[in-house]
Amino acid sequence: MPVAVALLLAACSSGIERPEVDLETTSRQTLRTWIRSGADDRAETRSGAMTTGSARNTLTFSRDTVGLRFTNVTIPQGARITNAFVRFMPHTSDAGSTTITVRAQDVNSAPQFTNANRNISSRNLTSASVSWQPGAWRAGQVAETNDLSRVIQQVVNRSGWRSGNALVLVFTGDNRAVRTARAVDGWGTRIAPTLYVTYETSGGSGAGSSSGSTAPSSNVSSGQQEWLERLVATIDNPRYDSSNAWMDPLRMADSGDLNKYGRDLNHYLTSLILAYRTTGDRRLVQQIDTVMNRMRGTLRDTTGDGFRNWRYLMRNPDPGGRQHVGRDTHEMEEILAHSVVAAAAYTLRQAGFNSSANFWTNYLRNDFEAKWRRRKGVRSGFPFLTRNLMHPYVQWIRYHHYMGKLTGDSGYTAEARRMARIVENNMRSVNTPSGTGYVWDHRVQLSGRASNGCQPMVYVRLTTQGLADLATQGVFSNTFMQRVANGMAHVGLKSTDGQLAGNICGSGTYGGLYHFVSRPYVHLAPWDHSNRLREAAERTYNATERGRLASPRIYNIPASMVFILGR
Question: Phi/psi at 313 (nearest 5 deg)?
């Protein structure tokens, strides 16, 4: 039985943060990893000849013996496997009865496949096996194996198994009806075969964590608990098919792309941060650490200037971004990405993931910030970098606020306060059914510069998200946030069906239902006394996700509801 959990109640401007300080004795985690190279999904014909996915861009189960090699399998030695399966994307619609036997290579770390005859079937395989009789497959609709726990358990029980080793799964069919899946060659990693493993460890940290367990907190209300488990399901058992693979946070984290980090991954990490602050649930912090570790793995000194960096890799950018493609020179994208890194590092520090928090603090100060101070010729003091559009400006306040927390340097904190007062002075009052509301221009006016007009809704998401996060830290007052929420609820939101205006001042329309459910406009709901934002969150969630609770994809609404109900 887990030991009692002690909770530290940290005051904030409205509500509380609940980071845990004592540890549970059992850690439950889910690994998700996929085939990244055509060398790792191979097939062996009945004659023993080895083929690659690139030959046909597909894998044919039952007729061929198929080998899948998953790298960087971060399961600790001896962990208890509670569930495991592989998810495929069928290439053709296949039916008919067939039985496929699944085993693993019984080795500490599985070597790469070669072209030697019978290189898959000749490997030493586990005595444990799973008999899988797949149902009918439909092209383009996800299919999954049976539970493979006992097969993987035999491998991780080996005394020489180590977290991060490679694992090979072998699929041997009865040569009756076939099942054809898409291979990584020709289709890319977004729909490559993906391995899911849920496991438990006892009395210590799990893979990727610096200290502590990831067991859930019990300090949540019954209403929060329902939404919390929906959020956790997006971590443990998400379903991303080819049409929405861009939403997958682990694939985004592997990209090394500043544009993805500063926008969609920023939304994801911030949603987890806000949910953690009202629950203390360490499963959320473990996921933050997992994502951040993958981001860490993409850091390189690509310019030879001695500083590790990420690059701007957006496809088809607007004219202003084209000069930055493949480089680390896009100032706005650098601000957006590193602001959420600072917020995540502080959350890791709160939760006791000290090794990770220390790494990111060091990186921010000695790589990211040192690089820009050198480029700008600002050896000390502030500002050393700025971008006077509202969304990066608000996000940049996050950077300075959290760097002050992480380093104890009051200069960061003073700069965050200075910038926050400028944001407050840029608000314009409007009348709403709930009282005074705020709207704002796209450009932050510092010294009488011309406005760009009202901020487009596509960028408002980064502004409102940053304001919500900073309000939990006392940077912005409740009164200020209520007026921002009034503006969003009554001017920016046109209907509780999720229809958004084209800009924060209410003109035009923007996007559709999917934009509302997948982006953090709802983070303002705790300050919305009309409950229009909360109503819209619940209605749009029911419209898009209710039938997918066992394998969800939308994290934003559950995280927002946990945040709302916790304040």
Answer: -120, 20
